[in-house]
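Reposting from the mailing list since nobody answered there.

I have sequence plus structure tokens for a pair of proteins and want to know whether others read the tokens the same way I do. The first protein:
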Amino acid sequence: MTELGNRLKEARKAKGISLEDLQNITKIQKRYLKGIEEGNYDSMPGAFYVRAFIKQYAEAVGIDANELLEEYKTEVPNAAVEEIPEQMKQISRAQPYHHRSAAPRSTQRSVHKSVAPNTTKVMNILPKVIIVAIIVLVLFLIWFAIATLAGKHNTDKLNSQQSDNVNIQESPKVKSNNAVQDKNKAKKEKNSQTSTATKKKQKDTNKTDNTKQSLKVVSTSGYNSTYKLTNTDQFKVKLIAKGGQTWIQVKNSDGSSQFQGLLKDGDSKTFDLTTQNEAVFVIGNTVNTKMYVNNKKLSYTISPSSEVRQNVTIQFKPSK
């Protein structure tokens, strides 16, 4: 293991990075990274790649690559000159020192001519390869865009045709549904008109009854008052507690009690007394009690402010 490799390995371990992690970071194969740590550069493509891999390794573990290469330049192969073939080394070693004159210079010139290594060839070819790759990529993107647009156009056209077919096939069903809806709508309108007419007729009847009926005061004495209801065939009384609570009691013509109890504010009670010829209403608080006879408000003949508790008697004489 070289000092350079040992330093890189220690820096990697200090950062807690495994060779697998470093391979993912630098995109350099694990065997080359291991070769850098062990100083085994023979497994690599050439001197250029050795220096390039060492730079990437150093940058990945936080070491200044240029300073590292300068410090250990004796350990790192020179990228500009490949190793002299082994045969040339043997020839050089076989010749004595005093014979190294013109022949060695010739040999040196031939060696310098062969200095254009595989790495230099690769560097010369690499730009051309990149340009070709870019051209191929651009052509592929153009083709892909055209194919995508054509496919989308065909899909839209097919969907449009299918939509037209669906509309044509479903048109009788839609027509049938529209007919049913129109029929239901007409039926609802007819029912609404009938209901409106019925309500209007009932309202007119009630209005006529209220107009025809007569409710007159017969007599008053203390907190007792008597009224006479005529010109109607109905005798319905509604009592409403408004402004406070009130206690009431309703007696039939035979003196029996039909109802007695407390009405709270907002409560109401309706009594159908059509079968009775007389009814007595005992009202505990006339100030808080509103009284309606056949939907027509009764005005107390005795002022509630003077007599809070009152007995109201209504005599009923139905019309024939």
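The second protein, same order (residues first, tokens after):
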Amino acid sequence: MGEAEKIQKSAFYVSLSKDGITTKKESDDISEIVGHLHEDALEWMDFTVDNINEDSFVIATSLKFSLQLVASVLSDRYSSYEDLDSELGLMLPAVRVDEFDVKVYPLLIFIRKNLILTIHPKDVVRLQKIYRYADIFMKKIRQEIPWNDKLTILLTRIIDENNQKNFNGLRMIEEEGDALGKIMVDPKAPRVEIGNDIYMMKHALITYLNTLWSSWDVINSLRYGDAETITDNQKLLQRIGILGDDINRQIALSEHMSEVLASGLEVLQSIYNNQLQILNNRLALMVGYLTIIGTALLVPNTIATIASNQMFPFTQMDIPMYLIILIGSTLVATIFSWWAVKKLGLLPKRPDEADTPKKQRMK
């Protein structure tokens, strides 16, 4: 079931009785699901709400969680961990990525003896997959193990599902980054749009990394916090540790992707610098040609100006010699200007020729 799939019901309930019998209920009536609470079996209730800051207080207190716990969990931005001995409250980030738009929603988890309560906004639909197979999964939990072991097994499954959906966000960012890289190598691509896309990608990575670190903090607290509602069984605690290891790998991948992005920016800057160098060489080439043309025209123009003075009377017989002098001076000035510009190194051989010392060019 995809993340974007619409939730059919706003609340569901799954329980495992002492006799090993599972019960599943779902409804749009929150009070109906709350009424299924028995407290003598392993129970999981999930609620989808419009306003999590207000509705979570109503739902949690109706299931006998304290206001202090709910307020403490909601006080942080991305994640929180609050242990009040007989009850435990968690907030985990639920990430959804659309291109470079990273949206973070809160997933609230409240735990007390035999009960796990999850509350989240409508945009978070990832727990529906667990609900579909919750009865099969819960039947596999042995009846003889302690109640906090059962809670830990179910909690680990819920957190793992949330993490896996979050991890999909990095894959989507990578896909968008690959598309951006294709645009970046196009010299005709608009620089303003590329700059904005690079910023959006960088911001998406930073936000995604923040959510990973927030999740890791909560899982690390679960692993070593020694809460009464969490198991003391080392094998089950190792499962929580594995969740932390998965997040560490995602953090490493995200940081590596940041390094790749930084390298790409350096390459892009080098490309821009090369383009500027080519443009500079073209301008130098144009200046060289203009210098040659200007000098070539300056000499005959000066001769013509002087010769036009009345102190130099010319007859029709002098016109051939006059033209020879103008043409000859133009050719001499052109050749001399070309030689001087080349001698001074002001005229590169081609527009994209890099500035290199004369000795290196001679070699």
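Reply #1 (J.P.):
I read it the same way you do. Residues 11-232 form a domain with the Beta Polymerase; domain 2 fold (CATH 3.30.460.20).
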